[in-house]
Write a structure and sequence with these properties.
Chain lengths: 271, 278
């Protein structure tokens, strides 16, 4: 059960999005998010929708997988749509039945909101989560935030912590599995009972897990010391992050899209 | 002067100087030697390894590795670079999620240039026959493969000495045999000083010198032949001789005239053949 967890849901590949420098991808995603949130007219949503579709195609991630992810937010989608339809007050009244009033603007706004959410989820998964290995991601974050080192923010240490956390997720999942089996063999019951009873049943799993994690941390620290680890100072990297012309082009295009959204925001159906 | 010199070492985990792990221990290891350290649990084997690598500091006495004292804090990184260590649990010593990233960890810490790191990593992975796994996730490897990656990670520092701290304890027999063979290779082919701390007598028999620790003292010190010839003394320290040595000892006890201190199966077979053919 626990073994099926895929880490960060990264899909290795060779597409344009996979090859783009992770630092640029973070920046591109930020610009994209600004664009999606700023959009408020039919035309700008058309633009954003097209861009998202193009991104999905460029990533070469099967559309099925992207749609599967949308399933996870379906509840939020319906919830926001319903709220907007029933509680948005505009000018053109469509339905007026007892206490229910539905306005045309409400319907439009609900539609926009849904498109916005879908774009946000698809876009950010395609740009970053699906196409960037977790290691590249931490690396990129470390490098992007490195100016903060001047302000004594321990950027390297945070990145190291993230790297190690990622490294140990599968190990700890395996360990949890083992402890669960061991406790079940001793007659622990984890599947029946109410919420509180089940939560209580987790305690005999969490405590050994914590104890062993601390022991692991201790050993890992020793092993790291033995391999001359002494913080980020004077540390070099094997993989140099090299930005190429393509990355700049990609970023500029996304910036153009974002600015474009602001320009055409007033056109078409708006609310 | 020997490569690793331990003089008058005293050490205790207890700050108030309670139970002492070591009390006035003298020991030395020659450059290019292959030594096995035996001892029951709590005899101070692993503590000794950590003291040599400078992870722990002695309460009294002095340890030098290649002329560098572990007490000299400025030289600590030079010392750790000279003397690498492989730990027991393969999972707890791999830092990165990808094999080659993990091997690159030490060179990155040492501040090597990225092109040089690349070359070092490729060379070290080739040295442990893991080149094809360079881009694999570390957690998916088998125990033996993980230890091979760990060895590559230490080799990447270009050390002169490697200490294996029960590095085979969590491996299956195949992995154990593989890692033991690699220890020998590192010693014989690359001239590295190898210290193998172990519970397995068969592994110890492969070394050129065996040291038996008991209660923080050197109980026995000599070639495997010399040490394993004294089965009674070993059993008194809660240790056993290799299976084949035990078999021969029992045969000797029954009155068969076999030489003492036989370590390998083939050696025993030859000796018995000689005896039978008379």
């Amino acid at each position: 059960m626990l073994r099926d967890v895929t880490l960060g849901q990264f899909f290795p590949g060779e597409s344009l999005l996979h090859k783009t420098d992770a630092r640029f991808k973070i920046l591109i995603l930020l610009v994209y998010i600004v664009g999606v949130i700023a959009a408020n007219s039919a035309f700008s949503f058309l633009l954003i929708g097209t861009v998202t579709a193009v991104l999905v195609v460029l990533s070469r991630i099967p559309v099925k997988i992207v749609l599967k992810n949308l399933k996870a937010i379906i509840f939020i989608l319906i919830f926001t749509a319903v709220l907007n339809i029933f509680f948005y007050s505009g000018e053109t009244l469509l339905v007026d039945w007892y206490f229910i009033q539905i306005y045309k603007e409400g319907l439009i706004y609900a539609g926009f909101m849904m498109i916005r959410l879908i774009c946000l989820v698809c876009g950010s998964f395609v740009i970053l989560t699906y196409t960037t290995s977790p290691l590249d991601l931490t690396d990129a974050i470390e490098r992007l935030l490195s100016p903060l080192k001047k302000l004594k923010v321990p950027v390297h240490e945070f990145a190291m912590m993230m790297t190690i956390a990622l490294r140990f997720i599968p190990t700890l999942i395996e360990e949890t599995d083992k402890i669960m089996s061991a406790q079940k063999a001793r007659g622990a019951d984890m599947e029946s009972g109410g919420l509180i009873k089940r939560a209580k049943a987790l305690i005999p799993i969490l405590i050994p897990l914590f104890v062993s994690s601390f022991r692991r941390a201790d050993e890992l620290a020793e092993a790291m010391e033995c391999r001359c680890y002494h913080g980020g100072e004077g540390r070099t990297r094997m993989k140099q992050m090299e930005s190429c012309f393509r990355d700049y082009v990609f970023f500029t295009v996304m910036l153009g899209v974002c600015i474009g959204v602001f320009f055409i925001n007033g056109y078409g159906v708006t609310v | 002067m020997s490569y690793i010199e331990i003089k008058g070492l005293s050490f205790s985990y207890d700050e108030e100087g309670g139970t002492k792990i070591f009390d006035n221990l003298d020991l030395s290891f020659e450059k290019g030697s292959y030594t096995a350290v035996l001892g029951r649990n709590g005899s101070g084997k692993s503590t000794l390894a950590k003291l040599i690598c400078g992870v722990l500091m002695p309460d009294a006495g002095n340890i030098t590795v290649g002329g560098l004292s572990t007490k000299d804090e400025d030289e600590l990184f030079k010392l750790r670079r000279k003397c690498g260590m492989i730990f027991q649990n393969p999972d707890n010593q791999l830092v990165a999620s990808v094999v080659e990233e993990d091997v690159a960890f030490a060179p990155e810490n040492l501040g090597m240039e990225s092109a040089l790191i690349r070359k070092t990593v490729d060379d070290c992975l080739a040295a442990v026959d893991m080149t094809e796994y360079a881009k694999h996730a570390t957690y998916k490897l088998s125990g033996g493969q993980k230890q091979r990656v760990a060895i590559a990670g230490v080799l990447a520092m270009m050390p002169e000495c490697i200490i294996f701290d029960e590095a085979t304890a969590m491996l299956d027999p195949l992995g154990r045999r593989d890692i033991t063979a690699r220890m020998k290779g590192l010693n014989k082919e690359k001239g590295m000083t190898v210290i193998n701390i172990t519970h397995y007598m068969n592994e110890a028999a492969e070394a050129d010198r065996v040291i038996v620790l008991d209660n923080g003292r050197v109980l026995m010190d000599g070639t495997p032949k010399e040490v394993f010839a004294e089965g009674d003394k070993l059993r008194a320290a809660n240790l056993a001789t290799p299976q084949i040595t035990e078999l021969c000892d029992e045969l000797i006890a029954l009155g068969y005239k076999l030489p003492k201190g036989i370590l390998h199966t083939m050696e025993a077979a030859d000796a018995i053949e000689k005896l039978v053919k008379g």
